[in-house]
C-alpha cells in the first residue's frame, strides 16, 4: 500500500500501454509531418516519453501528498507552474543530451532537433498540465470511491445498529432502577415522582428521535445529558455531584447525537455506583483550533473496581466518530489513580 | 422476624420500608447503603432475613454473601435479571426484579416466613459459588483486621492450603476459605494459570522461569516468591505465553 500508484498489475499495465500509445502517436507524427527518418522518430519518441513517464511518477507522488482540499488554489497553481518550468527545461535538456549521445554522427538531425526545440517547450508544458490533471482526476475518483464505500459502511452500521440502537441508548438497568425510584416516590413524594416521570419521558423521547448518523446541536446534547444526570441524582442523592463548564455558545456547534450521554453513564457506573461517598463528574467544553473539545472526568473510588471494564462502550463511540468524521483518535482516555477522563474532539 | 436492608439507593430503601410496614411481625433492625457496612451489621446483628441489592458500593451483593458468618434468608432486589440463576444456586429465598409490585413483594415475604416457620434454617454454605459466576475482577477476604478487597491484577499467586487458599498480593498474604478449583473457575483463564497442583500463578507477575529438576520448573514471581511449576503447568504456560 506504500505505492498505490503501482499497487496492482492493472494500473501498471494501463500506465505502460498509455505511454506506448502516446509514444506511437509521437513517432508517427514526427515521421509523417516532419519527414524525420523512422529510426530517429522512434528514438526521439522513446526518449521524450520515457522522460515524461518518469516525471509523471514523481508528479503523482507529489500530487498525492498535497491535499487539494486544504491547500490554497493559488499556491497549488504557483507550485505547479514552477515545477512545470523546471521539469520542462530539464526534460528538453536531457532529451537533447541523450539523443546527441546516441546519434553522434547525425548532424543533419541535430538541425532538425534545433528547429523543433521551441515547439518542445510548448508541448512539454502541455504534457505537464495534462499529466497533473490526470493525477488530480485519479485522486478525485479514488477519494470519491472511498467516500462512497465509507457511506455504504455507515449505512450498514445504521441498519445493524438501529435494532440495537434503542437498547444501547436506553440502558435497561438505568430504566428499571429509575422506574423503581418513581415507584417509591409515588408513595412519599408524588410531586417528585411526577417530575421524574416527565424528565424520564423527555429523555426517552430524545433517544427515540435520534439515529446513529443524526447530528444535533451541542446544546441539545448537553440538555439531554443534564436530564440524565438529574434522574440519576434522584437515585443517588448526595453521592452524585456534577458540573458543566463552557464559555461559548453551544447552540452553534453540531455534533453526532447520543455520543456524550454514554460518557456520563460510564462515570456513574464506575464511580458513583461504586462508592457510598461523593463522586464528582466534571464536563468541560472548550473551543480549540480544530474543533470543540469535550472532557468528561470522574473521580475514582479507592476500592478496586467491581467490574472488569470491557471498553465496549468507548469503542462504539470511537467507531462512530471515525465513520462520521473520517479522522482517527478523536476520543482519548486518560486515567490516573484518582481520576478517569475521556476527551472527545468534534472537528469543525 | 429481624430484617436488614442492604440497598444503596434511598428511594429503593424507602419503598422496601414502606412495603414492610404492613407486616407487624417484621422488625427492621438496620438499613445499610454499601456492602461493607452490610457485612459488619449482618455478622453483628444476625438478622433472619436480608433484602440485598446486587450492585452495591465497595462490596457487591455476592461478595457480601462470601463474607458473612451467619446464614440469614436472602431476598435479592435488583434491576439486573442476569443474576437470577446464580442467586438461586446460592439458595436465595427469592429474587425481586425492580420495580416490583406490592403483591410480588408480599409473595416473596410470605415465602421467607414459610421457610422460617419450617424452622429449617438454610444451613447450606452460601459459599463457593459455581460456574454460572462471571469472572471476578477482585477478591474479597475477611480477617482479624477487617475486610480486604484485593484487585485481581495485584495478586501474584494463589497457594492451596487444605480447604483454604493463601492469596499472595501486593498488599500482603491473605487466607481465605475457598477451594483451588472454585477460585480457578472464577479467574480469567488467560491471566491465571494452574501451574501446579498447589499453585495458581498470575502470568503477568512471573519474572523468571527456570528448570528445577527433570520435568519440573521453578517460577520466580515479581515479589521474589518462588513457586513450583509441574510439567503440565509448564505446558499450559507455554501455550498461554507463546514461548
Q: Which descriptors would you attach to this protein?
A:
heterodimer, A: 348 residues, alpha+beta, Heat Shock Protein 90, 2 domains, five-stranded mixed beta sheet, two-stranded antiparallel ribbon, 9 helices, 13% strand, rod-shaped, B: 243 residues, alpha/beta, Rossmann fold, OB fold (Dihydrolipoamide Acetyltransferase, E2P), five-stranded parallel beta sheet, five-stranded antiparallel beta sheet, 15 strands
Quickly describe the structure.
The complex is a heterodimer of chains A (about 350) and B (about 240). Chain A is of the alpha+beta class and about 350 residues long.
Q: Going across the biggest sheet of chain B, name each strand in turn.
A: 2-1-3-4-5
* Main beta sheet of chain A: 5 strands, mixed
Distance separating the two termini of chain A: 29 Å
Biggest sheet strand order of chain A reads: 2-4-5-7-6
Looking at this structure, what is the CATH superfamily of the largest domain in chain A? Answer: Histidine kinase-like ATPase, C-terminal domain
Structural class of chain A: alpha+beta
Using the coordinates above, name the CATH class of the largest domain in chain A. Answer: Alpha Beta
Chains forming the largest contact? A-B, 28 and 29 residues
Shape descriptor of chain B: elongated
Bulk shape of chain A: rod-shaped
- CATH class assignment of the largest domain in chain B: Alpha Beta
Distance between the termini of chain B: 60 Å
Work out the oligomeric state of the chains in this entry: heterodimer
% residues in beta strands of chain A:
5-15%
Number of domains of chain A: 2
Overall mean pLDDT of chain B stands at 88
Count of helical stretches of chain A: 9
Look up the CATH topology of the largest domain in chain B.
Rossmann fold
The percent range for strand residues of chain B is 25-35%
CATH 2nd-level architecture of the largest domain in chain B: 3-Layer(aba) Sandwich
Instruction: Give me the secondary-structure category of chain B.
Output: alpha/beta
Amino acid at each position: 500500500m506504500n505505492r498505490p500508484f503501482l499497487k496492482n498489475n492493472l494500473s501498471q499495465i494501463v500506465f505502460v500501454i498509455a505511454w506506448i500509445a502516446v509514444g506511437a502517436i509521437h513517432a508517427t507524427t514526427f515521421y509523417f509531418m516532419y519527414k524525420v527518418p523512422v529510426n530517429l522518430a522512434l528514438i526521439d519518441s522513446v526518449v521524450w516519453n520515457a522522460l515524461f513517464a518518469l516525471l509523471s511518477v514523481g508528479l503523482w507522488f507529489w500530487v498525492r501528498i498535497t491535499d487539494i482540499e486544504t491547500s490554497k488554489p493559488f499556491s497549488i497553481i504557483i507550485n505547479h507552474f514552477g515545477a512545470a518550468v523546471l521539469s520542462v527545461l530539464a526534460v528538453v535538456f536531457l532529451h537533447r543530451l541523450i539523443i546527441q549521445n546516441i546519434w553522434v554522427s547525425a548532424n543533419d538531425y541535430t538541425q532538425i532537433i534545433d528547429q523543433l526545440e521551441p515547439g518542445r517547450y510548448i508541448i512539454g508544458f502541455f504534457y505537464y498540465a495534462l499529466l497533473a490533471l490526470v493525477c488530480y482526476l485519479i485522486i478525485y475518483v479514488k477519494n470519491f470511491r472511498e467516500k462512497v464505500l465509507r457511506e455504504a459502511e455507515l449505512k450498514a452500521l445504521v441498519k445493524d445498529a438501529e435494532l440495537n440502537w434503542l437498547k444501547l441508548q436506553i440502558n435497561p438497568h438505568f430504566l428499571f432502577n429509575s422506574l423503581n425510584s418513581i415507584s417509591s416516590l409515588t408513595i412519599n413524594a408524588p410531586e417528585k415522582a411526577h417530575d421524574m416521570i416527565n424528565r424520564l419521558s423527555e429523555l426517552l423521547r430524545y433517544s427515540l428521535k435520534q439515529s446513529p448518523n443524526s447530528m444535533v446541536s451541542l446544546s441539545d446534547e448537553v440538555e439531554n445529558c443534564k436530564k440524565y444526570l438529574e434522574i440519576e441524582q434522584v437515585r443517588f442523592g448526595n453521592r452524585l455531584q456534577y458540573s458543566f463548564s463552557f464559555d461559548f455558545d453551544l447552540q452553534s456547534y453540531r455534533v453526532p447525537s447520543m455520543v456524550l450521554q454514554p460518557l456520563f453513564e460510564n462515570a456513574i457506573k464506575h464511580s458513583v455506583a461504586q462508592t457510598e461517598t461523593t463522586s464528582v463528574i466534571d464536563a468541560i467544553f472548550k473551543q480549540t483550533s480544530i474543533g470543540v473539545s469535550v472532557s468528561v472526568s470522574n473521580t475514582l473510588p479507592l476500592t478496586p473496581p467491581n467490574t472488569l471494564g470491557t471498553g465496549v462502550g468507548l469503542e462504539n463511540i470511537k467507531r462512530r466518530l471515525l465513520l462520521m468524521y473520517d479522522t482517527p483518535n478523536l476520543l482519548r482516555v486518560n486515567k490516573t489513580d484518582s481520576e478517569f477522563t475521556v476527551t472527545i474532539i468534534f472537528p469543525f | 422476624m429481624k430484617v436488614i436492608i442492604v440497598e444503596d439507593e434511598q428511594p429503593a430503601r424507602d419503598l422496601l420500608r414502606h412495603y414492610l410496614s404492613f407486616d407487624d411481625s417484621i422488625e427492621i433492625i438496620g438499613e445499610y447503603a454499601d456492602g461493607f457496612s452490610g457485612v459488619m451489621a449482618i455478622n453483628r446483628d444476625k438478622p433472619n432475613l436480608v433484602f440485598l441489592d446486587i450492585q452495591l458500593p465497595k462490596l457487591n451483593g455476592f461478595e457480601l454473601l462470601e463474607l458473612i458468618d451467619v446464614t440469614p434468608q436472602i431476598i435479592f432486589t435488583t434491576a439486573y435479571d442476569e443474576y437470577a440463576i446464580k442467586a438461586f444456586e446460592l439458595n436465595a429465598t427469592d429474587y425481586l426484579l425492580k420495580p416490583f409490585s406490592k403483591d410480588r413483594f408480599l409473595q416473596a415475604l410470605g415465602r421467607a416466613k414459610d421457610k422460617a416457620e419450617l424452622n429449617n434454617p438454610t444451613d447450606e454454605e452460601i459459599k463457593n459459588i459455581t460456574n454460572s459466576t462471571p469472572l471476578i475482577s477482585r477478591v474479597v477476604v475477611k480477617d482479624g483486621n477487617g475486610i480486604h478487597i484485593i484487585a485481581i491484577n495485584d495478586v501474584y499467586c494463589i497457594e492451596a492450603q487444605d480447604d483454604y487458599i493463601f492469596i499472595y498480593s501486593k498488599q500482603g498474604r491473605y487466607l481465605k476459605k475457598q477451594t483451588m478449583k472454585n477460585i480457578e473457575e472464577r479467574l480469567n483463564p488467560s491471566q491465571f494459570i494452574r501451574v501446579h497442583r498447589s499453585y495458581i500463578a498470575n502470568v503477568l507477575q512471573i519474572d523468571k522461569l527456570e528448570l528445577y529438576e527433570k520435568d519440573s520448573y521453578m517460577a520466580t514471581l515479581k515479589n521474589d516468591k518462588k513457586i513450583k511449576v509441574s510439567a503440565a503447568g509448564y505446558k499450559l504456560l507455554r501455550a498461554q505465553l507463546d514461548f
